[in-house]
Amino acid sequence: MSGQAKQHPAAGDILPLLQKSLLGQDMTEQELQGLMDASKVRLRHYEKGEMVFQDGEKPHCLYILVRGTVHILKDTFSGRQIFLSAIDEPGDLFGEVYEVLHRPYDMYVEAASPVELLEMTSDLFTLSGEEEPSRVAVLVQRNLMRIFARKAYFMHNKLKVLGSGSLREKLVRLFFQHLQSDGTVQLQASREFLAAYLAVTRPSLSREISAMQRDGLIAVDGRHIRVVDLDSFEAYL
Predict the structure, then answer these.
(1) Which of 60, 79, 99, 183 gets the most CB atoms within 10 Å of its CB?
(2) Which of 26, 24, 8 is nearest to 16 (CA)?
(3) CATH 1.10.10.10 holds for 165-234
(4) Tens of pLDDT along 164-197?
(5) Cα–Cα distance, 194 to 83 (Å, whole number)
């Protein structure tokens, strides 16, 4: 593990970060203070390209993004790198499943830019046999359940996309998940990330998007996509 740690960040620095996070959702300032009092917290900085943790390592905390972007990655046996997802919203969590289950990581996380992370470890994150858990523990465990449900829903949608037959079907299913009422899709990720998400090469992705535009299904302007022929578009669902 690398990175530079500020071992004892001030409470005034941490509270706003917890308030933005899903872990601190619906918690009062007093309850957040209770979470901090029951947790070991540090603020750590990573330079671009540094590893937050490696595949196979045992977890020691969960992570809350403060600033920057990290990529969640996995290597195949043949050495090919698979892009799983990007964490780029301040307050987003990652690594919490492994911390709760005490299971080694089966992927690794790399800083895609200069990054600051809040690293927390606490008995509140696990479901102990305590008969009457504190209110803070109940709120933390409730919020963790919400986080797990949200991530399960994300994986459900991803599996529906990746389970499609052709690349065109995958793209249509992906675009359909983000289709607005006016028939447009605003992509948040670059084509490099989109290709990695779909497990295809970037040239293959660009060729298929161009073919869909040429066939009159969509119109593309950078990351802005407009469905031109909805009936033909939905035929691939």
Answers:
(1) 99
(2) 24
(3) yes
(4) 889 999 999 999 988 999 999 998 778 887 888 8
(5) 9
CB atoms within 10 A of CB 13: 13
DSSP structural state of residue 93: E
Residue where the block lists tokens 């600033």 = 67
3-state secondary structure of 87: strand
pTM, full prediction: 0.69
Rg (CA), the chain: 20
DSSP state of 90: T
Helices 135-162 + 167-177 axis angle, to 10: 140
CA distances from 129 to 114, 133, 134, 211 (A): 40, 9, 12, 58
Q: Is 126 exposed, middle or buried (0-12, 13-18, 19+ CB in 10 A)?
A: middle
Q: Calculate the alpha carbon distances from 180 to 26, 96, 225 in Å.
A: 29, 32, 10
Flag whether pLDDT at 131 surpasses 80: no
Report CA-CA distances (Å) from 39 to 18, 19, 35, 98. 12, 16, 6, 17
Considering the four listed CATH numbers 3.40.220.10, 2.60.120.10, 3.50.30.40, 3.40.50.12780, the one that applies to the domain covering 4-161 is 2.60.120.10
The residue extents of the domains of the chain are 4-161, 165-234
Q: How far apart are CA 6 and CA 117, in angstroms?
A: 10
